[in-house]
Amino acid sequence: MALKSTIYKAQLAVADIDHGYYADHALTLARHPSETDERMMVRLAALAFHAHTLQTVCGGDGTLAFGKGLSDPDEPDVWLRDFTGATRLW
Predict the structure, then answer these.
(1) Which terminus, N or C, of the chain has the lesser number of Cβ atoms within 10 Å?
(2) Does the pTM of the predicted model rise above 0.85?
(3) Beta 87-89 vs 78-82: how paired, if at all?
């Protein structure tokens, strides 16, 4: 029997003074059975670090989301897509 992913909920408050970005994010993270807690936290940190790109790159009309992670090695851990569906940040 295959192991299932563990689901985590996180509330992320970003206050990025340098970029003038202030927002709250309600996140759902799925941790693959072979993924370590440290790697999951690095994915969360990467999303927090790039959260301001929603405004600077897409003017607020984008989606910053987690990829499939270890389930699909060809997909990024975090990416930004604009309202047309084009990938703006990999």
Answers:
(1) N
(2) no
(3) antiparallel
